[in-house]
Amino acid sequence: MIMKFAKSITIVALAIFGAFLSTSEIAMAQSRGKVAGVVTDAQTGEALLGVNVILKGTQLGSATDMEGRYAIIGVPPGTYELRASYLGYQAVTIQNVQVKTNLTAKHDIELSSEEIVTEEVVVVAKKKLVQRDVTSTRRTVTREDMNLLPGIESTSDIFRMQGGVYEGNVSADVFGGQGQNVAVRDSDVKDIHVRGGRGGEILFLVDGVPVTNPISGGHEALNMNVIAVEQIEMVAGAFSAQFGKAQSGVVNITTRSGGEDYHGGLEFRTDQLGLFGENYNFSQGALFLSGPEPITRQLLPLLGVNVPGNAGFFFSMNATQEDGRQDNGRVRQKMELFGVELNEKQNNDQNINANLSYEPAKSMRMKFSLNTTLKDWTFFNWQYRYIPDNMRRESRDNINYNVMFNHVLSQNTYYALNFGYLNMEFNRSNDGRTPDDYWMISRDLSGEVDSVYSTVEPTAADPVWLFILDPNMLETFYSEQNARAYTGKFDFTSQFHPEHMLKVGAELQYSDLLYYQNDNGGTELSRYGRYLYRGGEEADKPLGPHPEFGTSRWYFNTAAAEGSFYVEETFEKEFIVLNAGVRADFFWLGDQVTKDYWKTRWENVTNLDADWDDYLYAISPRFGVSFPILEETVIFFSYGHFSQLPGKDDLFKDPYSGSNIGNPRLDYEQTILYEFGFTHQIVEDWVIDVKSYAKDISDQLGRINLNFTGGGTSETGETVSMSDNISYGRARGIEAMLTKGYSDFTTGKITYTLQWADGYSSSTYEDAIRQTENPDQPRPIRETRLNWDVRHQLIVNFTLTSPEGRPIDLFGFELPDDWVITVLFRAMSGEAYTPHVPNSTFAEEQRLQNTATGPNRFYTDLKVSKGFSMFGTKLSIILDIFNLFDAVNAYTGSGFNAYTGKPWVYGDVNHGNVEYIRPYQKVFYDMTPYVYSPPRYAKIGIKWEF
Fold first, then answer.
1. Which residue would you say has higher pLDDT here, 911 or 435?
2. Contact, 211 vs 220, CB < 8 A?
């Protein structure tokens, strides 16, 4: 781990050095916003020409035109001070100007004559509750919001507070109808369903650079700690043509940067005190430091060397360990976290985030970033309850480098270049053992193989207890994934007319992809292995390592490339804002699937023609219009086409072994989205926001079994299946939100979502599994509720805060200041599930699919923090309590009895030809800990900042 980290630091240092030598060849910028408005004479109301308007602390600014209009473009998201100055007039500074990604912060300014006002006027901008130029649903979470809300520790935690979002874990194992583990995903990654879409339909960006998993697609590769984050923006509606590779939403994470002053902090959190509830052996430590870069700003000037421009830095690191609620009970080993040897826990992860920003001139800005996510964890499997050390472990090492360059060509035009590198490594194995580590191969004196046997037993459940009890039965499953993605991006923005802004951009990503999965290599020889060692039938050597072992194995090692081009126009007047654009995406399938040997093998297995094109492309028009009827009222409508590539495993899995193969004939999955929104500020601090949306999803992946369509079988005689663009889904919903802006020490938000999510299947593999279990079953011809169809969802958060220096007066008594209390309440209806009916026919089971609804769920989390100022620094005590009222929430997955509509309990009846009370042993096995959400528990922390 230390060597890997040292290597990473060396590489990023070289990248920074190279960037300084050749700034004109570097590529892209983080997403930006705009500040605009009109400057007038406070007495006459006349427009003022040539007023200098700047953002203090930056080199960004503008001058007003004949009509008094100004526009500052290319502003990084954050909070600024806006200053307007003009000869003969008193300067005005507006504080707390908030800039959001791809939106306009509108601030009109009135200047008074120096004869009337003698001192500079300072105004604190009130947070705007109605954004006039929004043409799709956007939710922005600032660093201030993250500090207020309970349980916001990493970037993935923001989904818990978003309406229309359902969060579940990615299935670590997807088993086909023949019991094969046909899909392997990182079990630590969340499956986020946005507005009825499937999981894995989100584009994740860090500072505007894609950090989505290059193999599976649509999942976050960097789950960053919020200590390194300035702002997170989530677009759930019809996002602009600037963004692609997603069907359901965009999450844009803006990292923190260094400023003119030094800031730093330390934080530690734990639940090991056992306050108010359970103890999951959680501990987390984090630190950060930021400010002006000391070498060029302080050290070199002392030596007589003056480097032009300004430079700043930010650095953070954090480490987290916990056993979690589902402690697997394994023997803990030694490990290193940042070079310190510790006892491992079930989950161990560490993050390093660093960036260096440099402004060599007023018109140029560069930023060099390093983001890492390293995690090791051991798996929890209820079947291995009594032999936990026989279970597998997983590790993920993801490293991201970004080099960004921004160049302002004129007051109204700038371009941005970016180069990004993402390296993703994932491994799942039994303590690092590969398939050949489980075999003993003896040879005679001549070197010929004498005997070959496995040293472990195939896993099989005990017939009475259903658990795996034999200590010789190990999970010998092995998976290795590695992806290296190189991304270059160019964006050009020009406010070429006061009412028109043009954006043009292009992106190219080249990826080296390796995927290797061996399901049963520890206990089974491949057909090639049987030919090699036991004189079996002659067989082709499968691709990838360990070709002698495993009948269920998949491999690909290929290069691929994808790119895009977009053009977008924003037309803005007082009474209308129009965004229109079009995006073109293309994909090159790479080198592996174009080889003759690969095509021949694929045709032999599928009995289909390998007639795929080397390139895919998709055209996606986008349109959005906003009508700012009044300053307090906005109506908008948006429409767009959104395309996304299937996962690379669905495209490239080799056809040499295993019953699940890749299909290079796949096309883009498509979504058409319509959205209508209405926002109205009822009174000064209260806003109501209503959105309705509709999504039509076509060319969705479904699984087909080829022996039913004229295809062949695998080497083990099993049915061969592959993905195809045969499925369809749709979602409809209404989202209503009532927001109270900050006043009288309180702020809050209530969000209610009513949603319908229907489709032909809830996963790519559902059709194939059903068809394998019952070959006579036709493919679905009607829609049913999807597994994540949570019809009702209510989210309430309320914050009571007493800022430093502003204590609350209660009945004449002045309370202490500098504290925060936040309550986050979530209620939702249950997931859809298929009820079981005694002695039901196959047709009845089809008719009943997902017609029942699981139990409702309720969560209440509480955050309390108190700050203390001391010697110019601040110390805070923080308490997070989760599931405050200890609610018992049940899920409809493992451990749920579909006959009763509740989790399994002793006394439940086993239905069949003969009904009887289910035996004790089987009910004990059915009562898995997965079925319930965690009970009440609390984390307490201490944070020190300067």
1. 435
2. yes
Q: Judge contact between 939 and 270, C-beta under 8 A.
A: yes
**Which phi and psi angles does 591 have, rounded to 5°?**
-95, -25
β-pair partners for 454: 439
Q: What is the pLDDT of residues 153-170, one digit of tens each?
A: 988 888 888 899 998 755
- Cα separation, 237 vs 673, in Å, equals 8
Burial of 654 per CB tally in 10 Å (0-12, 13-18, 19+) = buried
Please state, in angstroms and rounded to a whole number, the distance separating the CA atoms of residues 613 and 615: 5
From the list 73, 100, 105, the residue with the least C-alpha distance to 411 is 73
Q: How far apart are CA 572 and CA 419, in angstroms?
A: 32
* CA dihedral of 711, 714, 719, 720, whole degrees rounded to 10: -60
- CA pair distance 586, 563, nearest whole angstrom: 5
Q: How far is CA 880 from CA 153, 466, 824, in A?
A: 11, 39, 11
Q: How confident is the model at residue 450 (pLDDT cuts 50, 70, 90)?
A: confident
Return the residue matching tokens 């075999």: 439
- Determine phi and psi for 706, rounding to 5 degrees: -75, -25
Place of tokens 């490990």: 335
pLDDT in tens, 627-677: 998 888 999 999 999 999 999 989 999 988 767 889 999 999 999 999 999
Residue 36, beta-bridge partner list: 71, 106
Is residue 799 within 8 Å of 822, Cβ to Cβ?
yes
Beta pairing class for 33-41 and 104-106? parallel
* Cα–Cα distances in angstroms (integers) from residue 822 to residues 232, 809, 819, in the given order: 20, 19, 10
* Tokens (6 digits) for 58: 């930056």
Strand, coil or helix: 172 = coil
Tokens of 206: 């860090």
| Cα–Cα distance, 474 to 458 (Å, whole number) | 7
Q: Which two tokens stand for residue 225?
A: 């700690």
Give the three-class secondary structure for 604: helix
Contact status, residue 426 vs residue 481, Cβ threshold 8 Å: yes
Tokens 């803006």 correspond to: 254
CA distances from 840 to 766, 770, 780, 915, 923 (A): 20, 16, 19, 13, 22
Residue 348 forms beta bridges with which residues? 321, 376
Cβ-proximal residues to 688 (8 Å cutoff; 6+ apart), any chain: 679, 680, 682, 736, 737, 738, 739
Q: Is 161 exposed, middle or buried (0-12, 13-18, 19+ CB in 10 A)?
A: buried
Q: ∠ at Cα 385 (383, 387), nearest 5°?
A: 100
Give this prediction's pTM. 0.87
Do residues 898 and 834 lie in contact, with contact meaning Cβ atoms separated by under 8 Å? yes
The first and second tokens of residue 280, run together, are 């999951």
| DSSP state, residue 543 | S
Q: Using CA atoms, how far apart are residues 312 and 218, in angstroms rounded to an integer?
A: 33
Q: What is the pLDDT of residues 459-495, one digit of tens each?
A: 899 999 999 999 999 989 999 999 999 999 999 999 9
Q: Are the C-beta atoms of residues 167 and 192 closer than 8 Å to each other? A: yes
Q: What is the CA radius of gyration of the chain?
A: 30
How much is the pLDDT for 3?
A: 39
Q: How many CB atoms lie within 10 A of CB 850?
A: 19
d(CA 131, CA 109): 18
Please tell me what DSSP assigns to residue 298. Answer: I
Q: Which residue is listed with tokens 């209440």?
A: 860
First to last CA, the chain: 31
On whether the CB atoms of residues 110 and 40 are closer than 8 A, the answer is: yes
Q: What would the two tokens of residue 634 be?
A: 């906005």
Token duo for residue 396: 């993920």
Answer yes or no: are the C-beta atoms of 238 and 624 closer than 8 Å: yes
Dihedral-angle region of residue 421 (phi above 0 means left; psi in -120 to 50 means alpha; beta otherwise) = beta
How far, in Å, CA of 67 to CA of 74, rounded?
22
Spell 449-466 as b/e; 16+ CB within 10 A means b: eeebebebeebeeeeebe
**Percentage above 90 pLDDT, the chain:** 51
Confidence (pLDDT) at 27: 31
